[in-house]
Design a protein that fits this description.
Blueprint: H1 3-11, E1 16-18, H2 20-33, E2 38-43, H3 52-66, E3 70-75, H4 79-82, H5 97-111, E4 120-124, H6 126-129, H7 134-141, H8 146-149, H9 153-160, H10 167-183, E5 187-191, H11 195-207, E6 214-218, H12 244-252, H13 259-265, H14 271-283, H15 288-304, H16 306-321, E7 331-332, E8 340-342, H17 343-350, H18 356-364, E9 368-370, E10 373-374, E11 381-383, E12 388-392, E13 396-400
Parallel strand pairs: 2-3, 2-5, 3-4, 5-6, 7-13
Antiparallel strand pairs: 1-6, 8-11, 9-10, 9-12, 12-13
Helix pairs in contact: 1-2, 10-11, 12-15, 12-16, 15-16, 17-18
Amino acid sequence: MTVPEQLAIIKSNVVDLLPEDELVKKLERSVSTGKPLTIKLGLDPSRPDIHVGHAVVLNKLRQFQDLGHNVVLIIGDFTAMIGDPTGRSKTRTPLTLEDTRANGKTYISQAAAILNNERTRVVYNSSWLDELTFKQIISLTAKYTVAQLLERDDFTKRYRGGEPIGVHEFLYPLSQAYDSVEIEADVEIGGTDQKFNLLVGREVMRAYGLEPQCVLTMPILEGTDGVEKMSKSLDNYIALLDTPRDMFGKTMSIPDTLIVRYLKYACFADAKEVDDVDKGLSSGAIHPRSAKVDVARRIVARYHGMQAANDAAVEFDRIFVNKDVPDDVPEWSPELGQVTIPIVDLLAITGMAPSKSEARRLIQQGAVQINGAKITDMTSEIDVTTQQLLKVGKLRFLRIVPAAR
């Protein structure tokens, strides 16, 4: 494509493109030489799942690939040990290199659902950051000032509020910037919350005598609660690894105010269609539930195929409209001789809650049912000598089957 044609695609749904004139020059050079641009995305593997919010950025990378450019995914296994201070009011608990690498492996397979593998290179930043000598680290820190780092909102707020800031936290944006130096990035992409880090990359590349990368930021998609950004830690996310049923059900739980944003940023509908739906919802010509079903169907189809999306829609109606139970409810059996199990233990043992504290929270919220009856007493003992149907939230079922004698 010509440079104007490429630029029109690249700028779609983008919040920041800095500076645009430099990107135009890079694209012109790419067209004239036939050499693809190197587009960088750094992934923080502090948790193992990629969710629909990440897909907003990944889809933009795929657009670059479809235009003939190459993507470098940097798994921040080393920087995740520092902990990204973005949006944090306190120092993050550092992870081990083993934890970050294990999480990073799942990122690769999940990102493949969106990206073109032939135009994707995956690297771990520990391969160069772990090798830096102390002399090289000092040289890196000399490229940026404390005053520049304190321009970052979360650092400023913590400093003024008397909250401690570890020196190692200052190294996070510098380390991320060094990643750009290492791969000689032409463009770095991230969410709007990463704008500061991405701009640091421009300055550090310039300090190392390299052509600075351009910065492109994408919107941050709110989670299913409609308030906070989509995050696994806030349990408001739709994971790419979710089953079609869970993915559909979670999408149906979003508030009506998010329908248009999900259509635009999770379904990647074109601007005219987004505008038509927005007007239809505002005028009442389109019912929110039908629009939400369409969004849910599209999201499931994108990652599991249209047949799975249609099946999930039928299943959703059967469970929530007709108050039915899914066909494929997983089963669990207690140990032989067990008669009762405390409800908190049962939720944790079966994996219906990740921990006992989370199990208690679910019970407090009224999210736990046995055979359709809500459990409100945390000391309840559940009879496991007869078949029971355990339900957690709106989507998760487990059939308790007595142990075979």
